[in-house]
Amino acid sequence: MKILVNALSGIGDALMFTPALKILKEIIPNSIIDILVMYSAVRDLFENNPAVHQVYFVDFFKQSKFKSLKDVKKLRKNKYDFSVNVYPSNRFEYNFLNFLLGAKKRISFKYVYSGFFRMEYLNNIIIPEEKNIHNVIQNIKILDVFDKNHGKEAGPMQIFIPDEFMNKAKKWMSENNLSENTLVGVHAGSSTLKNHINKRWNVDKYVLLLEKLMKNYNAKILLFGSELDVNSYLQNKLGSDSVQASTDNFLDSAARLGFCKLFVTNDTAFLHSASAMEVPVVAIFGYTNAKELYPWKTRNVVVRKELDCSPCFYNSPKPARCLWKDENEFKCIKSIEVDEVYKACTELLDKKPNL
User: Fold this and answer.
1) 41, 117, 257, 316: most buried by Cβ count inside 10 Å?
2) Do 2-145 and 163-350 share a fold?
3) What residue spans define the domains of the chain?
């Protein structure tokens, strides 16, 4: 059986498919599973996964439409039995692409918030979206198409890091004198697509939080993410006890992240990367749904405000909007205070594992 998995969204969504991928290979061990991606980090994630036969990278963003169509035509020649849109893929482009790939059976989701022009009808196996369950579990529902009686529970998310990257990370740790410290990883940025810059907790509150952790836990701060303006600001405020940790290579960053004793983050892909590396996570949520996106299979504390209007963002191509205006706009994230997040950090730092 030949299966093509369309993992076209970002690294966080790709990670939340990895438990389903593992089980899929277990229940159909002789299957050939290929992955189609359009982000280099997602390619890096899957290239070392033992369940994957081949990863196809198509740069739909930067290359011409003609070149993209040629690449899709080549994939179509593989004559897949199944093609799968991983959850969430709530855009008409994903459904149209799944149709063009020409698999006999095309699997996707029917989203609660959707419509005719999302072209879900171009798929011939439709799985209903269920609200308030984790994205990992949404993806596990795909497996019922192949074996309704598989009886397997979702395990942790998976990142397979080759020894060369682990050795590089250890060398980097030594060069920066980090091995003897409590390492706290931080991602204070976020994507700006769909207005998601408003998922970011205030950067000055991050400064106050991290200063307390540095003082009370002798912590060194590892700054993750590509948002150079945010990380430079934090490093200028925190001084020599903070280090820029991310690189252009996802596996490099993940290897370094794995040495952290704690990770503090907004709702971003690094939340899920830290979870996959089984690092304890403090996750700061605003308008997105923590029930669907909380740190999976790792010790964690979610910090959010239980407002009547939150969570208000759902899987849709539409940008995030707030019903409140002026100083109250996105008050769900703005009203979270430093002491609340610090308390969550102490819960995880002071609690011994497996107790």
Assistant:
1) 257
2) yes
3) 2-145, 163-350
d(CA 189, CA 37): 23
CATH superfamily ID and name for 2-145: Glycogen Phosphorylase B; (3.40.50.2000)
CA dist 257 and 184 (Å) reads 9
Nearest of 211, 222, 219 to residue 180 by alpha carbon: 219
Instruction: Look at the pTM and tell me if it is higher than 0.70.
Output: yes
Q: What are phi and psi of 6, to 5 degrees?
A: -90, 95
Q: Which CATH class is domain 163-350?
A: alpha beta
Q: How many CB atoms lie within 10 A of CB 64?
A: 8
pLDDT of residue 278: 97
3-state helix vs strand vs coil in the chain, percent to 5: 40, 15, 40
pLDDT tens-place string over residues 75-92: 999 999 999 999 999 899
Give the relative orientation of helices 203-217 and 338-350 as an angle to the nearest 10 degrees. 40
Contact between residue 189 and residue 231 where contact means Cβ atoms under 8 Å apart: yes
For the range 344-351, what are the long-range contacts, defined as Cβ-Cβ under 8 Å and sequence gap of 24 or more?
344/282, 344/301, 344/303, 345/184, 345/209, 345/213, 345/262, 345/264, 345/282, 347/301, 348/262, 348/280, 348/281, 348/282, 348/299, 348/300, 348/301, 349/182, 349/217, 349/261, 349/262, 349/280, 351/299
Q: List pLDDT tens digits, range 145-154.
A: 999 999 999 9
